[in-house]
Structures are given as structure tokens and as C-alpha cells.
Target: Threonine synthase
Amino acid sequence: MNYIGTRGFNEHRTFSGALLDGLAPDGGLYVPQTWPTPDFDLKSASAGGYGDLTVKLLNLFGVNVLGDHAVKAAAQRTEDAFLRNGEVPLTKLDDNLWLLELYHGPTHAFKDMAMQMMAPLTDAALAQRGKKLTLVTATSGDTGAAAVRAFAGSEHVKLVVFHPLGRVSPVQRLQMTTVQADNVLNVGVEGDFDDCQRIVKALLSEPVLKQQGLISSVNSINWGRLLGQVPYYLAAAAHSGADKPEFVVPTGNFGDAFAGWVARKIGGNVGHLHAAVNRNDALNQAINNGKYVRRQATETASVSMDVQAPSNFERLVYEASGRDADVTRTLFNDFAATGDVTLPADLQAALKAEVSASTVSEETTKATIKLAYEKYGQVICPHTAVALAAALERRSDAPQIVLSTAHPAKFPAFVTEALGFEPKAPDAITDLYGLTETLTEMPADVAAAVTTVRSFIEWID
Model:
């Protein structure tokens, strides 16, 4: 299994190379050179043990270049983060409507599944090469917390996390800043998530940093991150008993939704994919109106979705265009330069055939949290509410699985406002309050980021 880039890079990387690169050298995103056909019974594997399913999928996508031990260790950590009381965390809300709880890992967010998998795989890849790696990541809250928990204390990895200052929930901030590890640097950026993401992409191609060793990212631009999210689509569909259920995904950077696309592409029992976004709706506008426009992200209760330039949209464009690297490269170069592109009509139609999208308002988000409690007895987070609202708007006789991506206690203020009582928090969250925080603040400036990261690398070396 080799990997190529969405913008034409075709020198082929193994999984290990794609994992450690993060971005392809030309700025594109890695995808498999060809989509594999499972050499095992995918239906049976999806209905079986989650760890075994994950091992089979990792091997299918070439992760076995890192050795059987690394694959099994990654699968075990993923399984530990996913299951609820030893079972697939699927809750039936109504006829043909399920909630898939993806927040049973160490930071109580769905990012744990992929991040817990990435850590042992990254360590194995670095050990093979005798190298160390600087990882940089942008986060709107949950990615950073999951990365800090997964990589803290690693002997091979130095981790720098950029989050928009004052624009993550207090719990999300504490989950990052209270972890005291010499190999972790938390940075608050005076800007929004898109500023953080722009900084990370610039750092990945910064010559000064590359001179100091390998540098990569654990954002969902990294194929290894995205791959860790594929198994739960297959497991959830199998355990629902439904034929080709629709998945409704609360969407920020579009990585989770694209993981569902991958599950469907390899022949999984996955039906239509619907991306639910908040008022930061660049993705929805692109798919439904053909205009992809970068605007300043606005703050919402579903903070992890406050994204106006979703990176993984590039992978969808590449696939919908018939894997046309020229079309993909031109579109995203123009978008980077102008922030405003019009999609060709045939490309827009192809995108709509792959994924649909809709926007959910703050008012509807709050009302849906209340409805979920009163009608279904479920306390849900704002991100989950965005997806559930979109699912209920689309309701038909077709089976639907709504992804629930974070524990409601990570967003207590908004949930309390909606319900009139505070969601019960697990000990892992309540124990954060009162701990010492370590945080570096900086402007939304690439030069400042280079200086900050370089100083950290030099200090830790």
C-alpha cells in the first residue's frame, strides 16, 4: 500500500512516510494510491470484536510496515477508547434512529480514538528510523486535548498545540494546559481556529524548522489520524442491524465525515453521509451553492466546529473530481490566494452526490439539547445537538446514526442554559479544576510561531 498526494505528488510513500510527513511535499493531502479491496470478510469483521476489526483495517491500509506489535498496540488503545462497558456505544433513540457515543476515551471526545492509535504508530515509525519528530497541531479544543494526553511523555515526539485563545471551552483548555510534560508546549493564539490551522500548515514547510529534524502534524490532514476513525462507522452500522444506515456527522474540519466516506468506499455497510455544520458554514455553502468562501470564524457553542476552511474538503474534492490533481491543486491554490472560489458545476454536482450538508443555528442547537433530554432521556453536547437537529430535519423511514462526539460536561454553560441543570461530569473532568496551567500566548503570526516552536525545540533538545 502506497500513498500519493491530492495535488499531484506521486513519488509514493508507505504508511510510515505519510504518517511522519503529515502533508505531502507539494502541500497536498495523502490518500491511498488506489483504494484497497478487503481481503477478509468485511461484514463479519465489522460485527466482531472492535480490536480485531481495527487490526484488519490497519493492515489493509499498509500499517503493517511498522510491524505486528505496533499494529496490535494501536488497535488495543483504540478499542479501549471506544467501547462502553465492553460494547459498541450505540444507543437507540427511536425507530431507525441511533446515537453513537464516541466520547468514552481519556479526554471524553471522539478524537481519542484516532489519537490513541496514532501515538504508538508514530513511536514505532520513529524507532524504525532512529529519529525524533516535532508534531504541531491546530485545535478548536478536542484535538489538542487528545494529542496532549496521547503523546505526553513520549521519548520520540515533541508536541506543540495551537488553540485559539479564549475560544475553547474551559474544560478543553484545562485538558491541554494542566498536563505537565517536558515534551509538550501549549500555545494560545490571538485569533480563530483557521488562524491556528494556517500557522500549522506554514510550519510544516518552514525550512528553518526542517533543519532541526522531522516535523509533522496530528491534525486530520494527517492520514494516520483519519484512518483511526474508519472502524467505528463499520462497527456501528453492523451493530445497528440496519442496511446502509445514513450517518449524520457534526462537522468542523471534515475529517470525521471523510472517514465515513472511506468506510463506504471500501465496501462497508455505510449509506449516505450528511455533514451538519453550525453557522460557520463554508462547507455547506460550497456543496449546496458552489461558492467556497473563507470568512472569519464566529464563536458558537459547538466550538470544535468553528471552522471556515475545512482541510479535509480537499480530499473530497480530489475524489469527486475523479482524482484530478490539476483541478484540486488549482482550486486550493486559488482559495489560499483569494479565499473565494466558485466550483465548476460538474464538480459541485459530484460533491453533492458524495455528501450532503446543512446548517444548524444556535437557537436550534439549544432547542435540540432540550428535546434530546425531554424526548429521549439523553443529555448531549452542542456538537451532538447540531447533528441530531440535522438528522431530525431529514427524518424519513431510512435508518440514521447520529455521531455524538463529546461528553456534555465539556460544555457545561451552554448545556445548563438549555436544560436548567448542569450535566454530571466524570471525575476525569472535575479533577482538572484547581490544577496548575502552563500556557504560552502569541499573536496569529507565522513568524512568531516559528520563533516559539524553534525556541521550544532547542530548549528540549
Q: What stands out?
A: The mean pLDDT is 95. The first strand starts at residue 3 and ends at 5. The domain at 81-108+226-419 is CATH 3.40.50.1100 (Rossmann fold). The chain has 21 helices and 15 strands.
